[in-house]
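Attaching the record inline, Q. Sequence:
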Amino acid sequence: MAHVALLIQDISACGGVEKVMHGLARDLRDSHQVTLVSVREGEPYWGRLEGVEYRTLGLPATGTRKNFRHWVTHLRRLMLEARIEVMVSGYFAFHLAAQLAARGTGGRDEAGNSRPLTRVIAQEHSAYHHDRRAKRVIKHLLYRHLDVLQVLNEVDAECWRRRGLQPTVIPNYLDDLAERETRAECERQADVVMVGRLAPIKRVDLAIRAFAHSGYRRGRLVLVGDGPERESLLALCHELGLKVFQGANDDSVPDDTRVLFTGALQDVSRELRRARLLLLTSERECLPMNVLEAKREGLPCLSRPVRSGPLALIRHDVDGVLSAEADSAGEVEIVQELAHELARLEFDDHRLLHLSKAARESFAHYSRDAVLPDYQRLITRLVPRRRPMADVSVIMPNYGYDRRLHAAVDSVLAQSEPVREILISDDASPDGAAARLREDFAALETGDVEIRILETDTNGGPGRARNRAIAEAQGRYIAFLDADDAWLPEKIERQIAFMQETGAGLSYTGYEMVDEQGNHVSHFAPPARLTRDDMLRSNSIGCLTAIYDAGRFGRFYMPTIRKRQDLALWLIIIGQLGPAQGMPEPLARYTRRESSVSSNKFKAAAYQWRLYREVLGMDVISASRNFVHYAVNGYAKHR
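Structure, as predicted:
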């Protein structure tokens, strides 16, 4: 667990950088100590997160020489007092201040205790081509001294590489919340929506002119945002003869409204979900969050072909539309091209449906599951692991190439006490998953933790895949984790200490159940002691929490049955070693999938019956008695 600080300009602002940092704080807090640092004072616009510390420097954010000196001084004091190991900065001036402040860290304090060296990650939110030449020259010189230059897309990364720098590409991302509400099909939607600050750089005036010039009558233009250009944009609408309404997008909006100003909204999902098209007319964008939010909702975007963000995010006529704007085009030509595409898209439902589907599919590259592991790996690389290692082998079965596996591995690497090794056993995946996993993890900085990819010759189910890894394991303790589950950072440290104190041969913990979007569903707190009879009536040991002591009692393998092989293993171990001992507090996170809760419950019951009769050899009466207990306890556990 590292101490990570996220540095922003104004915590009360609703800007894209602040939104990115808020999301990063939310997602890193489970595996790291996180502090959100604001230069200006204020209340968090995006709300306060439980488990995240908030600090303000209480300084002006304007980049004068005097202010810059104060930034450096205050940041160095914060780094030393809070023992910050990684600082992520979101603005150019703060990149430099943080890097200078970090030079005074490390070494030892007055008492002779070692202090961590703060490493700085500079998030470059400005597109390379849109900086003035003089500013680019300054950046070329100063960025050579950064610990990490993070850029948001490959277009900008290639520009920096040509100047001799080696940036790390990690894009903005969003959590996948689209499952909360189903978006209607395009033929049921009418409005064109634009999301962003009403500022000169966003060129909202071009959007209004193009909307008027296109003769778009199917719906209205909805402007979500606020800013200094609001009054001039209202005047432009009146000049063009467009009826305006200012307020919420609800039944109070007059039917003859052509342009709706909603003001700034914290959650724009509802407006995107009810729109037909997102319009983007900015002069420059790096990796616009509004396009990612639209993709998440399956909303196509019509954008000017701006380098680098829109060109990196939108594939013309595949998952969005780029207007045919020449490099030297004037405002009249820009408006005409946008109006032309708006007119084409107004009634072409078939084309919109195709773009909508592709936009939703392309969001997978910018989801939390896809991007967050890159941040975890970067932090692991910057903060060396010098903690004592637990002699634990982690067994992870795998079938098919699934990005969720990376998040599970990251939860193991984020343990407060590192494990000895992670063994990923691929069950003869048909898509070459093992080779892809070797490639992924070969470049992963894992400290002293070894990751090994094993393969089975033929597909035999997760039990057989786990047995392959158990046979290769070198650690004293054998632990289990599946691809879509995760451990909390202190699980291994606390559970191994518990086993050493109690002498338990098999131990387990409680766990949190979450849905497929990561939202809390419930907690499961198992009994402190489980006998064989207890386990026959209800499997209270979550596989993701179990650890057994192979160094002391020898290796135990799972019966090679397709289902319930974990329960069969617990019964074997308890039968030989006596009752298992557990910790009721939740130290793991189990993903509960709808398919596993509803459509598969009858299959699960059938496998449970087969376990009693065929694996354990019970007679019908004994099997029936235990099955009744299993059914009742299972209902109570998962309702």
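Residues 39 and 57 are 5 Å apart (CA to CA). The first helix runs from residue 16 to 28.

More tomorrow.
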